[in-house]
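Appendix B.2, paired examples.
Example (i):
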Amino acid sequence: MTSTNGIARLQLVAFDCPDPRALADFYAAITGWELDEDAGDWVQLRSDAGATLAFQEAPDHQPPVWPSSDRSQQAHLDFEVRDLDAGEEQVLALGARKTEVQPGESFRVYLDPAGHPFCLVLHPDAVTT
C-alpha cells in the first residue's frame, strides 16, 4: 500500500568526499546548477526546481568500487542525455573516469573525481545509430 502523505520531504542527497568544492564544481558543470552554499567542509548545489546535491568533507573517504560487493556503490546518480558519445566526451573533460565494466547499451557508467559512480543514460526519445 502506498501513501501520498509521506512523513518527510527529501531535502538533499549528500556525498562524502575529500574536496567538497571540487566535487561541487564537477557536478555544477554537468547540471548547470548554481552554488547554493559553501561552508568549506559542506558545499551545496541547488536546481531551480529545488533539488539539492550536497558535498561533505570526509578526509578518510574510501570511494566505492564498481562493480563489487566489497565496497558497493551504495548510491549513484543518473543523468539523461540525448547523445551518449557527446555526453561522455564532456564528462571525461571535466575529470570523470569511464569504468571498465559497461553492462548496457543505453547507459554508461563513470566515476566522479572522488570515485562515486554515476551514469549517463540515453534519453528515451533519442535516436540511436
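Example (ii):
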Amino acid sequence: MTPPTTRTWARRGRTPTVRVRGRSRRRLSIAALACYKPGQPSRLIYRPSTDARPDGRKSFAWTDYRDLIQDAHQQLGGPIVLVWDNLNTHLAAGMRRYIADRDWLTVYQLPPYAPDLNPVEGIWSILRRTTTANRAFTDPDHLVTAVRQGLRRLQYRHHVLDGCLIGTGLTPAPP
C-alpha cells in the first residue's frame, strides 16, 4: 500500500507532491505463469491474493501454487514444462509429491538467485512502471483492482510477454 514513485514533469519550481494519509502494512501477493508455446500467442495466467485470508496466511502456500498449476493445465490443455525459482513454497514436500504424481508436469529449478532468468520478473517490472507508478491507492481493494486491470492489459499484449522471455536470453530473438 506504500505508493511507488517515478519521474514526472512539472513547471520549474513547482514540484508535484502526493500526500498519503498513512502507510499500511497490508499487502498483495500475486502468482503468475508466463506461458510460451511455439506457433501460439503467449499467455499470462495469474492469481492475486490479499493478506486478508481466512487462514491468516499472508503469502501463497504450496496449495495455492498447486491450484494455479492445475488451472493452467486445464486452460492450456496439454503437458506443462514449468521453470521456476527456488522459493521455499516451490520446494515444499507437498509440492514435490504433487509434481511427482503428475506425468503431464515437468519442473526445472532456476539457479538459487537468478531473477534475470525469470520472465515473470519482467512482467512485475512493467506493472510497477505502468500500472502502479505514481498512484496512491485508497484501500487494498483499489490496489487489487488496479493490478488486475494492468495484468489484464498485459494478457492481450503478446509481444510484451514475448519480450519478457527474450529479455532473459533463454530463447533466441525472432528473426
